[in-house]
UniProtKB/TrEMBL annotation:
Single Gene Ontology BP annotation: methylation
Species in which this protein is naturally found: Thiorhodovibrio winogradskyi
InterPro entries per record: FkbM_mtfrase, SAM-dependent_MTases_sf
SUPFAM superfamilies: S-adenosyl-L-methionine-dependent methyltransferases
Protein name, as recorded: Methyltransferase, FkbM family
Source organism phylogeny: Bacteria, Pseudomonadati, Pseudomonadota, Gammaproteobacteria, Chromatiales
Protein keywords: Methyltransferase, Transferase
Length: 110
C-alpha cells in the first residue's frame, strides 16, 4: 500500500481511490519508462497514445487504462453531493473535466 493510502487510513479519512488515468475518452494509453542515467531503473516516464519501442533509454512500457469521469462515477456513484474529487494532473485539466460533463457529476462553479 502506498504511503498516502496508509496515512489516510490511519487518519480515518473515508475515500475511494481509483487507479486509472482520467481523460475525455475511455481507452488505453502507454506509459513509457526510461532510464536516462544509465542505471536501468526508471528515472522518467511519458504517456503516449501508441507504443514506441524505439524510444531512447527505454526500460519498459505499461498499458494504462483511461476512463472518463462519467465512466468512473457510473461504476461507483457518490452517495450525495457532499464529495470532493481530487485530480493530480499536469496541464490536462480541461480534457479531464470534459470527460465528466454528461453524467452530471461536475457542477458549474463561478
Amino acid at each position: 500500500m502506498a504511503q498516502r493510502e496508509e496515512n489516510d487510513r490511519a487518519a480515518g479519512i473515508d475515500y475511494n481511490l481509483h487507479k486509472v488515468a482520467l481523460s475525455d475518452a475511455d481507452g488505453i494509453l502507454h506509459l513509457h519508462g526510461t532510464s536516462v542515467d544509465g542505471s536501468g531503473r526508471v528515472t522518467h516516464t511519458q504517456i503516449r497514445p501508441e507504443r514506441d519501442e524505439a524510444m531512447p533509454f527505454l526500460v519498459g512500457i505499461k498499458e494504462i487504462p483511461t476512463r472518463r469521469l462519467d465512466t468512473v462515477f457510473a461504476q461507483q456513484p457518490p452517495a450525495d453531493l457532499s464529495y470532493l474529487v481530487k485530480l493530480d494532473v499536469d496541464g490536462v485539466e480541461e480534457q479531464i473535466i470534459a470527460g465528466g460533463q454528461q453524467g452530471g457529476i461536475l457542477g458549474t462553479y463561478t
